[in-house]
Amino acid sequence: MKTHTIRTILLASTLLGGSAAWGQEVTLTIESWRNDDLAIWQDKIIPAFEAANPGIKVNFTPSAPAEYNAVLNSKLDAGSAGDLITCRPFDASLALYEAGHLVDISDLDGMKNFSDAAKAGWVTDDGSVSFCVPMASVIHGFIYNKDAFKEVGVEAPTTEAEFFDVLDKIKADGNYIPMAMGTNDQWEAATMGYNNIGPNYWKGEEGRLALIRGEQKLTDEAWVAPYRQLAKWKDYLGDGFEAQTYPDSQNIFTLGRAAIYPAGSWEISGFNGLAEFEMGAFNPPVQAAGDKCYISDHTDIAIGMNAKSPHAEQAKVFLNWVGSEEFAKLYANALPGFFSLSNHDVAMEDPLAQEFVSWRGKCESSIRSTYQILSRGTPNLENDTWNASVATILGKESPEDAGKRLQAGLASWYAPQQ
Question: What is the pLDDT along the chain (418 residues), one digit of tens a residue?
């Protein structure tokens, strides 16, 4: 008997045996905070999985985002949570694993399709255990108004010198605010400012992990220099930016009043429906021509298995499928701006989303510097980075003083920095 035939028989036997063990039909329930995704799951994702996996049905049951953590914890404590748990990145999900609610999925075949950086949001501190399958990330960069650039006669910059030359020319032209970002809500200055441009200075994962190990400090040039660039942004943010909220900035850009928007890729879908001009995007400009580029390709959402699920084998089938190329293409194109974290080459149907994701081919990916381990204590480094970013833009704190303050705060509770 040929080897191929033997394998076919064995596979058929395995499938039949599994089906018998599962009974006629099993339904998996997914817990999630993404209630805005309900139609996408019901219309696209679940039908694709069920078609490929007869005998397994899936029910997507999201909660309101603000209530998700509390609702999920109550269900887990009561033993009524679903089979599959959608995982927020870092500490919230790590706490679920440490409490015994999520299982170790490190050995799942589908996990082979993810890099260490992609898995970073859902691993133990020592990196030895993965407990959620990565689903998507968001990428930072700059979205720009192509009509404005054409009118002013500028092109997307690749270096810092070109970046500020473009900003100067837009400002001199006078028809557009050079860059739409406010400081009222604080988080934008850190998320779309400091952690957007910063990886080019601290060399992405190299610097981020060195900070966690205590081998670099926030007073080092690589960590202070991004604040120096932010301090220069003040002249390009338009009148009244100090009181400008996040929704204000979105409106200013989509109404065509600003030429550039420091962005996260999650804006793509919303901007597509609002902007009446063609948009482009460029990755954070490097310090000098020829430098290696780095991007914030930040882990956003994953999915794991409830340790008390009565359908563990079927749940593993679903989790392996989440690691597949089929899922990567479905999810990323259903939600442009939320990019697959897998190693599969996924082409985007949306041109702006494709521009963002293309940067992975030329730049090194990293995650936001404050999100893993470094914001567990008091003072909170993430919140301190918010106010330091704002303070340097406003000129209320020098970049060097900001670095000293943040380093002192981190060292006050984090042993490797002492």
Answer: 333 433 333 333 333 333 334 457 999 999 999 988 899 999 999 999 999 999 999 999 999 998 999 999 999 999 999 999 999 999 999 999 999 999 999 999 999 999 998 999 999 999 999 999 999 999 999 999 999 999 999 999 999 999 999 999 999 999 999 999 999 999 999 999 999 999 999 999 999 999 999 999 999 999 999 999 999 999 999 999 999 999 999 999 999 999 999 999 999 989 999 999 999 999 999 999 999 999 999 999 999 999 999 999 999 999 999 999 999 999 999 999 999 999 998 989 999 999 999 999 999 999 999 999 999 999 999 999 999 999 999 999 999 999 999 999 999 999 999 9
Write the CA distances from 131 to 47, 62, 275, integer angstroms: 25, 20, 39
Q: Could you tell me if 167 and 290 lie in one domain?
A: yes
Q: What are the structure tokens assigned to 192, written together?
A: 């779309």
Residue 176's nearest CA partner among 261, 99, 117, 106 is 261
Domain count along the chain: 2
The answer to whether the CB of 267 falls within 8 A of the CB of 180 is no
The H or E element that residue 140 is part of is strand 133-145
> Residue 14 domain-assigned?
no
HSE-CB of 299 using CA atoms within 13 angstroms: 28
Same structural domain for residues 342 and 380? no
- State how far the alpha carbon of 96 is from the alpha carbons of 28, 88, 364, in Å: 19, 10, 30
Q: Is residue 381 part of a domain?
A: yes
- Residues 91, 154, single domain; the answer is no
Cα atoms in the Cβ-side hemisphere of radius 13 Å centred on 323: 21
Pair (120, 159) in one structural domain: no
Q: 200 and 53 in one domain?
A: no
Shared domain check, 412 and 286? yes
Q: What is the CATH number of the domain that holds 278?
A: 3.40.190.10
- Which residues constitute the domain of residue 230? 139-297+368-417
Q: Using CB atoms within 10 Å of the CB of residue 366, give its burial: 0 to 12 exposed, 13 to 18 middle, 19+ buried.
A: buried
Q: Do both 177 and 220 map to the same domain? A: yes
> Quick check: is 291 in a domain?
yes
**Rg of the chain (C-alpha set):** 23
16 domain-assigned: no
Residue 271 CA to residue 261 CA, distance in Å, equals: 11
Global confidence as pTM:
0.87
Q: Half-sphere exposure of residue 145, counting CA atoms within 13 Å on the CB side?
A: 27
Q: Is residue 181 located within the same domain as residue 308?
A: no
